[in-house]
Amino acid sequence: MEMIEIIAGKFNYWIYISLMMIGFYAMIAKGNLIKKIVGLNIFQTAVFLFYISIAVVEGSTAPILLSRAHGALTPETVIYTNPIPHVLILTAIVVGVSVTAVALALAIKIYRAYGTLDEYKIAKMEQEAE
Amino acid sequence: MEAIHSPLPVYVLAVSLIAAGLIRLSKDRPNLREFWTIGAALVKFSLVLMMLPHVLAGQTFSYHLVTVFPGLDIAFRVDPLGIFFALTASLLWIITSFYSIGYVRALDEHAQTRYFTAFAVTLSATMGVAFSANLFTSFIFYEIITLCTFPLVAHKETPEAIRGARRYLIYLLGTSIAFQLPAIFLTYTTAGTLDFAAGGIMAGKGPDTLITIIFILFMAGIAKAALMPFHSWLPAAMVAPTPVSALLHAVAVVKTGVFMILRVLLDVFGVDLLGDLGLGTALAYAASFTIIVSSVIALRQDNLKARLAYSTVSQLSYVILGAALLTPAAVTGGVMHIVLHAFGKITLFFTAGAIYVAAHKTNISELDGIGRSMPFTMTAFTIGALSMIGIPPLGGFLSKWYIILGAVEAGEFPILLVLVASTILNACYFLPIVYAAFFKPPQVAAPARSNPGHGHEEEHHVYWPWKKIGLREAPILMVAALTFTALGTILLFFTPSGFLALARMIAGG
Amino acid sequence: MNLHFPVLVILIPLFGALLTFFTGLLRRTWAWHIAAYATFLCFAISMDLLLSVHATGRISYWLGGWAPPWGIEYVVDYLSSYILVVISFISLMIAVFAGPYVKKQIGTERELTFFVLYLLLITGLLGMVITGDIFNVYVFLEIASLSGYALVAVGKKRGAVVASYNYLILGTVGAVFVLLGIGHLYMATGTLNMADLRERLPELYHSRVVLTAFVFFVIGFGLKFALFPLHTWLLSAHSLAPSAISAILAAAVLKVNLYALMRVMFTVFTPTFVYEVVPITEILFVIAPIAILVSSVMALAQTNIKRMLAYSSIGQIGYIVLGLALANETALTGSLLHMLNHALMKGGLFLLAGVIIYQTDRYHITDWKGLGKTMPLTMLAFTIYGLSMVGIPLTAGFVSKWYLAIGALEAGRWYFIPVILVSSLLTAVYFWRIIEWGYFHEPDDPEDAQDRCHVPWAMMIPILVMAFLLLFFGVAAFIPEGPARQAAIMLLGVQ
Q1: Which of A24, A95, A104 to mutate to test the interface with C (most CBs of C within 10 A)?
Q2: Which of B389, C157, C279, C365 is 20 to 30 A distant from B326 in Cα terms?
Q3: In which band, very low, low, confident or very high, does the pLDDT at B445 lie, cut at 50, 70 and 90?
Q4: ∠ CA B445-B447-B450 to the nearest 5 degrees?
């Protein structure tokens, strides 16, 4: 019983942790630089998901103020989800996009300089140059 | 003790620092450059002399320069022990400067400006150690001496010189950072202060084991005193030009070491505390070990400077022994040995240099009959040697006498045996040189003659004015210097008054 | 003292970057000037803030007039004002240095990019220091990091791009962990303001969420300041980046990230938490000495000067972390002093390496023989920096080591003193050999013994100023000691 509670009650944690680990695995284990960037993105997205998931309030609606005209009960009794994590994640998404952009730009530069995107081959080339 | 607040101690230091700058600026005018060295030496000595009467009357000079941060100050204090050392060092610097000039010009050495600059800064730092009021200040100047003497030891820039200099640095810097620095840390946290105080600052401040550990760290950390097994830097530093060896191994570096040991014994730990913990006796036996073993090693050296180096190691431990016996007479003897050994050993090193410059010989086995062609030099050598052995009417007898008295006073009879044995050993490694120089026929200088083409190039330059007399002595400046110091050893036997008075004050106070 | 100084210190480099970009399109040479003036203004403002804080106490600035905990608050207290001065000063020095350096070593076509990114980096760093809102830390962290990644890659060396990529990957992992930490804290308390968090956390100290948050912070920031064993990116990044960038990375970026962790540890989570609830100090007591000793040994084996300095940096970070873990006022003062001293020393050393590489293109110290004759001023400065790294008294390096050692003794952990001393001795070996080769050996290649080199004054002046400061702070150590001690007391105390 408790097991189910732990899994079902905190499924957002399980999802974010698994996604994060998948992303992390990709970043470390894959040799191709682009795949690493993909992994990085998965990693970051997992965290974004987590943040959004903690913003949820039971029985809530989107955090946009409703006026009486829309047939709401008194505005004061409406429950909204927590907008702060949403805002934070907007920032974090922008950051994530910038990071991806920089990473891809670096990957292009690396490709032009080395002719390959394989991490191991590049390391070997660097070692030979030493 | 009345303390006079005066920046005089700082001026003493500053004189040769300013001179160092001037020396650097006059690099293209050798005579002007040498003028700065001599001038600074004379001014420094006069300033120290000015303070002497006050100190003899029981006053001290003190000056606080700066508080680096709360708890650590750079401060100076001139007391009997400090001025004793300062007098010895500054007086001998004057003489060594003349000798240096003669030496570097005769050999046309390279990098003379660097040489004289480093000398000036080293003497400044030596005065700094002499006049330190606390462990931090003395540590600063102790390290500066190590760093500034490196260019002097490595002067020749040959691979052996650099190797020797590296060894020198490793031993001195290594022991000071590995041992002296933690000793200072522990002293600070145990005693709460780093200031020197007559009678010590550690009494009752911590458990006996801690104090013993700090004591051992200090003894290991002051490797400049060449207590075994931290003595190897001394023979390694023989790659330096002889005036460097003379000043370093008679005056600046080694005496800084024994001076610091005395300071630590008297003004950090205190005679009473050391006696209670038995540390004095332990140190006395360590010093005795060094005395005997290094004398034995000296016997086996053929290189003259190497023999003198090991002799120095041995003689330094006399000072340590005197201090470690903890009785007034012994301490007096130890302190007196600082100046007596300085004069004697510097004479010996001067003669070694003179022999090198005039006859290009470095090994004792080559010195047969050299007394005929270099009588002044070898007479001075004999005087220096007799002083080291401790025969009246030469100065070295005085300090040995006091140490023997002290050993009897302390009831340490094995130490008496050590003193007797070392005297015999000293005779064994010095007298044969004297005998060979005067009483053996000169060796035929075969290798030079067998190459007719190189004949007159190998012909050693005969210096003025010896040519007229038919001698092949060293340049006049060098001979004058060594004559001075040799006479000094004799003089100190007859009139040790100033020094002896100070030594008695140190031992009593 | 202007009321808006706290925010100006961020806005000036930010708009400076924008200004540099546009004016640089017109006249490229202005980029350097604007960067230098902007950093100078930041430094002046920081000094003013430091003096104000010591006169009147903690300054709290509400961004946009919104009151915390809903608004973002900028806090200038003893610690942040001290670090602000250190960072702005070192960024000024490096900005001045960078002018002629960038022209030659990076190329005039990238000069504009360099200075724009540099100013953005400074914005990020100063922002991280001054902010009192924990998410704001993340924002500025990313601004600084991204500029940093790009700057590492902007040089001509081919390997720099790979180093930058690796730095990016690991750095982003670190930043994301920080973000996770922030998220967990928010989840537990509902606030992002540091002072507010400090009040709400104590009752939650034993909750798993809060503990997890702390761990994420330690690892996240640890990756960013190269805490052993999370240091691997630093070696390539610092050695392959252009020297001016290695300097700012080692001197400023590492320090700011360490500062951020300090803030989290002491201001958000109180000392009680750090020292009693979580046994983080036990771990640090193992990590720090290993970092110190292993890095010193590895540095010995390097012939590439920048790699040697990079290893050395890891050890120096170990010193600061050790002071942090020792938990008393003396040790923490030592850590804070070491942040200043190491910034000066390592910054200066990387700049020196830059000067030598600029003039002679020689990376390997074995090729530096005889440099004492051709570049005497450079070698003299190097000697001063080297002596300070070893910790010879009369240099600033001695002062911080003293405080750390006495702090260790006061905490009863005397066994750290041999660690400090052994690493000092090893440092002496790897620095002294360079000094010896420079002054006492002839160059291997006879034709290298040329006449004196003429280095652009803009490059030499920062180096000489910092060398002078090392000696000055070695003697007049009470000047930085005062603010550092106040900051330490504040961190450990009730504030």
Answers
A1: A95
A2: B389
A3: low
A4: 110
Structure tokens at C436: 């010896």
How far apart CA A28 and CA A43 sit, in angstroms, is 12
Residue A71 pLDDT level (bands cut at 50, 70, 90)? low
pLDDT band for position B246 (cuts 50, 70, 90):
confident
| Chain C nearest C-alpha distance from A100 (Å) | 10
- Can you tell me the mean pLDDT for C208-213? 89
Q: Which phi and psi angles does B395 have, rounded to 5°? A: -50, -40
C240 close to C160: Cβ distance less than 8 angstroms: yes
What pTM was estimated for this model as a whole? 0.90
pLDDT for the residue C422: 94
Residues B115 and B254 in one domain: yes
Total tally of structural domains belonging to chain B: 2
Q: Enumerate the residues of chain C whose CB falls inside 8 A of the CB of residue B162.
A: 436, 440-441
Q: What is the DSSP string of B166-183?
A: HHHHHHHHHHIIIIIHHH
Q: In this structure, what token pair is assigned to residue B151?
A: 């260019």
pLDDT at B446 over 50: no
B246 and B307 in a common domain: no
In sequence order, the 6+-apart residues with CB closer than 8 A to the CB of C47 are: C85
Token pair in block for residue B185: 């840390």
Cis amide leading into C229 (omega within 30):
yes
Whether B293 and B259 share a structural domain: no
Pick the CATH number of A2-129 from 1.10.10.10, 3.10.50.40, 1.10.287.3510, 3.30.420.40: 1.10.287.3510
In this complex, does chain A touch chain B, defined as having at least 3 beta-carbon pairs under 8 Å apart? Answer: no
* B422 in a structural domain: yes
**Strands B60-69 vs B3-5: parallel, antiparallel or unpaired:** parallel
Query: Are residue B169 and residue B20 in the same domain, yes or no?
Result: yes
At residue B455, the pLDDT reads 38
CB contact under 8 A, C172 and A33: no
Which residue in B146, B99, B91 sits closest to B242, CA to CA? B99
Length of chain B: 509
CA distance C98 to C462: 10
Q: Are strands C73-76 and B3-5 parallel, antiparallel or unpaired?
A: unpaired
Share of chain B above pLDDT 90, in %: 17
**What is the helix, strand, coil percentage profile of chain B, to 5?**
75, 5, 20
With a CB cutoff of 8 Å and minimum separation 6, the contacts of C270 are C198, C201, C202
A126 lies within 8 A of chain C by CB:
yes
C-beta atoms of C405 and B136 within 8 A: no
Burial (CB < 10 A; 0-12, 13-18, 19+), residue C21, is: middle
Cα distance between residue B19 and residue A117, in whole Å: 64
* Residues A6, A19: Cα–Cα separation, whole Å: 18
**C-beta of residue B504 within 8 angstroms of C-beta of residue B332:** yes
Within 8 A by CB and 6+ apart from C306, the residues are C238, C239, C240, C243, C246, C350, C353, C363
Question: Over 50: is that where the pLDDT of B453 sits?
Answer: no
**Residue-number span of the structural domain to which B51 is assigned:** 1-173+233-265
Q: So what's the pLDDT on residue B55?
A: 85
Lowest mean pLDDT across A54-63, B223-232, C124-133, C217-226: A54-63
Q: Is residue B72 classed as helix, strand or coil in its secondary structure?
A: strand
Question: In a 3-state reduction of DSSP, which class is residue B467?
Answer: helix
> Per-residue confidence at B456, pLDDT binned at 50, 70, 90?
very low
Interface residue ranges in chain B relative to chain C, Cβ cutoff 8 Å: 66-70, 72, 74, 136, 139-140, 143-144, 147, 151, 154, 157, 162, 165-166, 169, 173-174, 177-178, 181-182, 185-186, 188-189
Query: With contact defined as beta carbons under 8 Å apart, do B188 and B194 qualify?
Result: yes
The neighbour count for residue A59, using CB atoms within 10 Å, is 7
